[in-house]
Design goal:
- The chain is mainly beta.
- It has a domain at 77-90 and 102-219: YVTN repeat-like/Quinoprotein amine dehydrogenase (Methylamine Dehydrogenase, Chain H), CATH 2.130.10.
- The chain has one helix and 28 strands.
- The protein has one helix at residues 2-25; strands spanning 30-37, 46-53, 58-66, 73-75, 81-86, 92-99, 104-112, 118-123, 129-134, 139-144, 156-159, 175-180, 186-191, 196-202, 210-219, 226-231, 237-242, 247-254, 257-265, 277-282, 288-293, 299-305, 312-319, 324-329, 335-340, 345-351, 358-366, 370-377.
- The strands form seven sheets. A four-stranded antiparallel beta sheet has the order 3-2-1-28, with no helix packed on it. A four-stranded antiparallel beta sheet has the order 4-5-6-7, with no helix packed on it. It has a four-stranded antiparallel beta sheet with strand order 8-9-10-11, with no helix packed on it.
- It is globular.
- This is Lactonase family protein.
- Belongs to the cycloisomerase 2 family.
- Keywords: Carbohydrate metabolism, Glucose metabolism, Signal.
- InterPro entries: Cycloisomerase_2, Haem_d1_sf, Lactonase_7-beta_prop, WD40/YVTN_repeat-like_dom_sf.
Length: 379
């Protein structure tokens, strides 16, 4: 009997191992939803954490931590730390420890962002550095991360240069965001003030970490105001949303080089109001792209993506709350969560994966002036 048991165990072992691997690759069902935004004495105090249940789309409040105007945040790959910009004139960056089981955030330290009014922050996969985009005076700063998760002072600051055609908004550089290439060998950053995408080589362990590429700049149509990016899941295409022009540009991407393919407008035909594009994301399968447009448009626009060419075709547009900003799509591709800054709310939609169409569900978070959302697995 013992021999039979041992033999069966040996035969079943590969199946057990495969099951364990599948479980590790399974999409989480429970998340922490982190919400940041502009702070004020009568409302938002900093970063709030909600539990998000991916089977139902329901949420529940967990915790909050005080910090000044965390309008953009990022989370370390191991989920143990959260970093936020402090979008104030004397810009800074804050570090927090994070318990994803309870949703509890604890302040660790703060460093100058070496710029004014920082608008964006991102972290590399090795958690070596955060890169901060300072909108106010157009600088890009690299801040190393210490072993305890705290931030060290900036080791590199790139100063943007130039102007563009809009004297009110483009009299100088305004770096709005930066994104790592899929292999993290490059960083691309968008300068709204100069209508440029800049490309730099990235080496996490070196100082300075960023060095300009041979062809370091890609210009966009004057007056477009490039704002923020997203890569297609396979890394072949890069999508840029232009705030002032309210357009989405599509580029091919390969080894630190981009090539313009096409551009589509966000506003509906005949629209005569004001537009101010804000955010762009693709679904996990890369079949659909979503983009937000503020101003008097206040819309979330859906496009289908040609998988061969990367080109976009409009599917449908949805009215939203006032000032739709950042949004997130959960890793399963089933839900989209949208922060409407001036409506003081986060709306949750169910995604039809076949059509890209959104279905609002009866689950809304009321929270003052939200501008950024991040989903973190709580499992």
């Amino acid at each position: 009997m013992n021999k039979l048991f041992i033999s069966l165990s040996i035969l079943l072992l590969p199946a057990v191992v495969m099951a364990q691997k599948k479980d590790k690759l399974a999409t989480p069902k429970v998340y922490d939803l982190l919400i940041g935004g502009y702070t004020n004495p009568d409302g938002n105090v900093g970063i709030s954490v909600y539990r998000f249940y991916a089977e139902t789309g329901r949420t529940s409040f967990l915790s909050e931590v005080k910090t000044a105007s965390p309008t953009f945040i990022c989370v370390s790959p191991d989920r143990k730390f959260v970093y936020s910009v402090n979008a104030i004139p004397d810009g800074s960056v804050s570090a927090f420890s994070f318990d994803y089981n309870t949703g509890l955030l604890k302040f660790i330290n703060k460093q100058p962002s070496v710029g004014r009014n920082p608008a964006h922050i991102t972290i590399d996969k090795e958690a070596k550095n955060v890169i901060v985009s300072n909108y106010g005076n157009g600088t890009l700063s690299v801040l190393p991360i210490n072993k305890d998760g705290s931030l060290a002072p900036a080791t590199q600051t790139i100063i943007g240069e130039g102007t563009s055609i809009n004297p009110q908004r483009q009299a100088g550089p305004h770096i709005h965001s930066a994104i790592f290439s899929p292999d993290e060998k490059h960083v691309l950053y968008a300068d709204l003030g100069t209508d440029k995408i800049s490309i730099a080589k990235y080496k996490a362990g070196k100082v300075p970490a960023l060095t300009p590429e041979d062809v370091a700049v890609e210009k966009v149509k004057p007056g477009s105001g490039p704002r923020i990016f997203d890569f297609s899941p396979d890394g072949r295409f890069l999508y840029l949303i232009n705030e002032m022009g309210a357009t989405v540009n599509c580029y091919s991407y390969e080894k630190g080089k981009i090539k313009f393919i096409d551009s589509v407008g966000l506003a509906s035909p005949g629209f005569t109001g004001s537009s101010s594009a804000a955010d762009v994301h693709l679904t996990p399968d890369g079949r659909f792209l979503y983009a937000t447009n503020r101003g008097t448009a206040n819309e979330l626009v859906v496009y289908s993506v040609d998988q061969a060419t990367g080109k976009l075709t409009n599917v449908i547009r949805y009215p939203t709350g006032k000032e739709p900003r950042n949004f997130v799509i959960d890793p399963s591709g089933n839900f989209l969560m949208l922060a409407s800054q001036l409506s003081d709310s986060v709306q949750i939609y169910k995604i039809d994966k076949l059509t890209g169409i959104l279905i609002p569900i009866n689950s809304m978070i009321s929270i003052p002036t939200p501008t950024v959302l991040k989903l973190v697995s709580a499992e």
